[in-house]
Amino acid sequence: MPRANAPNNVAEELPFEGPNFFRLRVCYAVLSGRPIVVSAIREDEDNPGIRDCESKLLSLIEKITNGTKIEINSTGTRVTLRPGMITGGCVTLNCGNDRCLSYFLEPLILISPFCKQAMRIKLLGVTNAPNELSVDQIKTGWLNVYNRFILNDEALDLKIERRGLKPGGGGVVIFSAPVVRNLRPLIREKPGKVCKIRGQAFVTKVSPSLAHRAIDAAKKTLRDYISDVYITVDQRKGDAGGNSPGYGLFLYAETTEGVFYTAEAISRPKGENGDPIVPEDVGTAAGVALLEEIARGGCCDSSSQVLASTFMALGEKDVSKFLMGPLSTYTIHSLRHLQQFFLTTFKIDDFAALDAGKKALEADMRIGDPHKALLTGVGVGFKNLNKIII
C-alpha cells in the first residue's frame, strides 16, 4: 500500500467540524491512511449537509481507490471516511456545473504520484469560472511545481479538450500523471526576475473581437512593467466551446529561474445578476491580478503554495527549502492539516529577517514582497509501495 511511516495510532479517527477545507481533509486522509469524521456540515443552514460537488468528490475518491468506505448520514451533515489503497487508473466523471474542475483536480494532483497505476482522469464540467482557480492556472502553475519534485515528468499533462463556462458547462479535460516511488527533496530559494509575459484570451460562442479588446486592455496595463508581452486567442466553436457563451483572459509571467506566476479574469456568466463586464475590464483585471502575483514573489504563485508544501512534507527524509510569497490563508490551514495527519512541521522564516547580504541582493533586484516566507522542513519519507523497481 502507498503509505508513509504512519503514526502508531493510525486507526484512530480524526474528528473535524464544518465544511471548510473538505478537499484537504479527504485528500490527506487518503494519503495518510487516517480515517476522518467530518460533522456539523452546514447543520444550521436552510439547506444542510454536503453539496453536490462534495458528493462527487467523494465518488471520485472511491473510483481511484480500492477498499475506501464512505458513510454519510441521512441529513448529509456527517461524513465518515475510511481510506483504502490508492489504485489510480483510467476514470471518467461528470463533475456537474457547481464548481470549476480545478476543485477536483487539486486533490487528484496531490494523490497522483502514489497510485498503483498511472492516472488518466477525464473530467467533464466547468473549466473557467469567476473567483475560482481555472484549469489553465492548474496546467501552468501547478504542473510546473509538480515536475520539480519528480524525475520523470513525460507522462504529466493536462489537456483541455473542450472549454466550458458557467452556467451550462460542457468542458472536458484529461489529466494524466506518472507513478513515482518517492518525491525528491527540493531547494528553491531564487525566484529570478520576470523576463516575459504570455497569455491566452479565450472566447466561446461569442465574437473573437471581444478577445482582442481584452488583449489590448491587458497590454496597456502591463506596458509600463515589461515590453515582452505576447497573448494569443483561443476561439472555440460548436461542441469545443461548451454549452454557454463567454470570454476571459489567462496570463502568466515566467522568470529567469523558471518560476511561473498566473492570473485570470473572466466575463460574468450568462443569466447571473449584475451588469455585464466589458472586455476592457476583463483585460485590465487580468493584468492587475498578474502584477499582484508578481509583487508577492516567491518560487511559485499563491495558488500552488499548497502543492509545494504538501510535496515537501511527503518527500524523502531530507531537508527541503522553498521560498514563497506571503502565505495565503488556505496555505496556513494546509500546514496545520499536514501537522495533524503526518505529524510534520515546517520552520518558517520571514525573508525580511534574513541576513543583510541576502536582503541587499533582494533590494537590488527588487523581486517581490520583502515579507516572503522561507519554508524549511524534513519529509516524512512517504513511499509508494506499489511502484515496481526495475
Characteristic key phrases:
single chain, 390 residues, alpha+beta, UDP-n-acetylglucosamine1-carboxyvinyl-transferase, Chain, Dihydrodipicolinate Reductase, domain 2, 2 domains, four-stranded mixed beta sheet, 9 helices, 18 strands, 28% helix, globular, ribosome biogenesis, RNA3'_term_phos_cyc_type_2
Could you explain the architecture of this structure?
Residues 190-295 form the RNA 3'-terminal phosphate cyclase insert domain. InterPro entries: RNA3'-term_phos_cycl_insert, RNA3'_phos_cyclase_dom, RNA3'_phos_cyclase_dom_sf, RNA3'_term_phos_cyc, RNA3'_term_phos_cyc_type_2, RNA3'_term_phos_cycl-like_CS, RNA3'P_cycl/enolpyr_Trfase_a/b, RPTC_insert. Its main location: nucleus. By secondary structure, this protein is of the alpha+beta class. The chain folds into 2 domains: 14-188 and 300-378, UDP-n-acetylglucosamine1-carboxyvinyl-transferase, Chain, CATH 3.65.10; 194-296, Dihydrodipicolinate Reductase, domain 2 (2-Layer Sandwich). It is built from 9 helices and 18 strands. Strands 1-2-5-4 form a 4-stranded mixed beta sheet, covered by helices on one side. A 4-stranded mixed beta sheet has the order 7-8-10-9, covered by helices on one side. A 4-stranded mixed beta sheet has the order 11-16-18-17, covered by helices on one side. The protein is globular. It starts with 13 loop residues before the first strand and ends in a 12-residue tail after the last strand.
